[in-house]
Design goal:
The protein has helices at residues 3-9, 19-45, 51-73, 77-98, 103-108, 110-129. It is an all-alpha fold. The chain has a domain at 44-131. The protein is elongated and about 50 Å long.
Length: 131
């Protein structure tokens, strides 16, 4: 079964966005992430902030990258639910940590935060409905 067919057969809530919407949304979010996270990594690289301050940003990227292979490669709703929780948690940690130094990074990532919060609720709902 192809990934598209597998996702289409899942029991999703009525409020789940159509599959075609994920690509455009993530394209915009990845631009925001590249600019804002790149700025944080530059600050860490130049020694303007501690490398430890960049840690939640690195972890967020790792967990974000793991979601698609877990959800669609392994077809594991449970692992994807755990992972999206880690994406949300590291994002909150990252934004709270950088706010005193570069508040604009938090403001720029509000769309990402909203989307990941929504995606977390959606993933929990999909996981519960497809046990």
């Amino acid at each position: 079964m192809e990934t598209r067919d597998w996702y289409a057969q899942l029991k999703r809530p009525a409020w789940a966005p159509p599959a075609w919407l994920f690509g455009p949304v993530w394209s915009v979010l990845y631009l925001i992430i590249a600019g804002s996270f790149g700025f944080v990594f530059w600050l860490a690289f130049t020694g303007e902030i501690s490398a430890w301050l960049a840690l939640p940003f690195v972890l967020n990227l790792i967990f974000n990258a793991a979601f698609t292979p877990l959800q669609f490669g392994l077809r594991s709703n449970l692992l994807a639910a755990v992972d999206i929780t880690l994406v949300l948690g590291t994002l909150i940690w990252a934004l709270a940590s950088i706010y005193p130094i570069a508040p604009w990074v938090l403001y720029a990532n509000i769309p990402y935060l909203i989307w990941v919060g929504f995606a977390t609720v959606l993933q929990y709902t999909i996981t519960a409905r497809n046990r």
